[in-house]
Amino acid sequence: MPRFAAGVVRFQNTVFPEKQDLFEELSKGQSPEALFITCSDSRVETAMITQTEPGELFICRNAGNIVPPHTEHTGGMTASIEYAVAVLKVPHIVVCGHTQCGAMKGAMNPEGLSGLPHVKKWLGYSKAAVDVVDGIAGDADPEERMKLLIEQNVLLQLQHLRTHPAVAAALAKGTTELHGWVYDIKTGEIEAYDEAEGRFITVDTRYAAQIRDLATKHECAA
User: Fold this and answer.
1) Residue of 41, 96, 160, 164 marked catalytic
2) How many domains in the chain?
């Protein structure tokens, strides 16, 4: 804890003054570009991965980057998704899984969760992804099965997102877009799902046109 407290002091004395104008603007409200749903895993550092500033991402984190299908039951994820889409009107929603995910290891081996009843129930929202992997890669080696599960879980949670009324309405109006990502902790690489190709491809390939447009805008601004 002393190290964290020292970090707060450095933030207050060094970082905050350098970005004071930004924080003063953010004190008036927020307009994030994306709802970013990812795992609680401490190795997934969203701002570092995306190189974003405060105010750019509305972040929801939980074990397994899970989105429960919409029901009348009110939970933290449901309320946060509704607020991000209906109030903040985020134009993008990202579900980001990652390698070496403990939640997915648990989903693959639920018999090992007997002492963790809440975790076991929560990971039930990933069971369909496990079933897909069993169906198409039942004989694959454990490493390949886990990689596939991480990807299939991201796709499953994107399906769950579509059941939320605010998301369904935004998708119908074309005011928001869904994205599925997988972050590789060891290499730093992120792959994004490409619907046209039906597979995950590198981010620089998936968003090549948008990245070029952004670079052009920066050149023109300079």
Assistant:
1) 41
2) 2
Q: 3-state class of 170 per DSSP?
A: helix
Catalytic residue (choose from 10, 43, 199, 212): 43
3 lies in which domain range? 1-28
| 184 among known catalytic residues | no
Assess whether 20 and 41 both reside in one domain: no
Active site residue 43: yes
pLDDT digits (tens, 9 = 90+) for 74-130: 999 999 999 999 999 999 999 999 999 999 999 999 999 999 999 999 999 999 999
- Looking at the fold, whether 38 and 140 belong to one and the same domain comes out as yes
> Among the options 60, 70, 96, 98, which is catalytic?
98
Of all residues in the chain, what percent are helix, strand and coil, respectively (each to 5)? 55, 15, 30
User: Is 96 in the active site?
Assistant: no
Q: Does 58 lie in the same domain as 18? A: no
* 92-98: strand order across its sheet: 57-62, 34-39, 92-98, 177-183, 190-194, 199-202
Tell me, yes or no, if 39 is annotated catalytic: yes
The catalytically annotated residue of 70, 101, 160, 179 is: 101
Residues 208 and 140 both lie in one domain: yes
Do residues 85 and 55 share a domain? yes
Residues 24 and 35 in one domain: no
